[in-house]
């Protein structure tokens, strides 16, 4: 049965490779998205934008809340 199922599964090998690659890319993207160092840099950018007047107080608050939520997800 192993040889038979192996032969039947052979045409799916490229699909399995693509799925594996997509999972690896997703893992890397999530790692970067939730990286505390990147989040801190983004928080600093939001603070600079607030001080320079590029963003309103409300926009800054929304961005900071989103960033802090990402940071909390990473820690849990």
Can you give a write-up of this model?
With 76 residues, this protein is mostly helical. It has one domain (17-75). 86% of the residues lie in helices and 0% in strands. It has helices at residues 2-9, 13-33, 36-52, 57-75. Helix 3 (36-52) runs antiparallel to helix 4. The longest helix is centred in the first third of the chain and has 21 residues, at 13-33.
- Taking all Cα atoms into account, the compactness measure Rg is 21 Å
Distance between the termini: 44 Å
Specify the overall morphology: rod-shaped
Write the H/E string, N to C: HHHH
Mean pLDDT: 88
Helix tally equals: 4
Uncertain stretches:
none
Tell me the count of domains: 1
| Biggest β-sheet description | none
Class based on secondary structure composition and strand pairing: mainly alpha
User: Level of helix content?
Assistant: over 70%
Number of extended strands: 0
Assess the beta-strand content as a share of residues: under 5%
Using brief descriptors, characterize the structure shown.
76 residues; 0% strand
List the helices and strands and how they pair.
Elements: H1 2-9, H2 13-33, H3 36-52, H4 57-75
Give a brief rundown of this model.
The protein has 76 residues and is mainly α.
């Amino acid at each position: 049965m192993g040889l038979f199922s192996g032969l039947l599964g052979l045409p799916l090998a490229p699909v399995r490779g693509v799925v594996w690659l997509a999972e690896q890319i997703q893992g890397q993207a999530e790692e970067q998205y939730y990286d505390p160092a990147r989040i801190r840099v983004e928080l600093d950018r939001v603070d600079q934008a607030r001080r320079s007047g590029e963003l309103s107080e409300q926009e800054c608050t929304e961005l900071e809340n989103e960033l802090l939520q990402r940071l909390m997800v990473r820690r849990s």
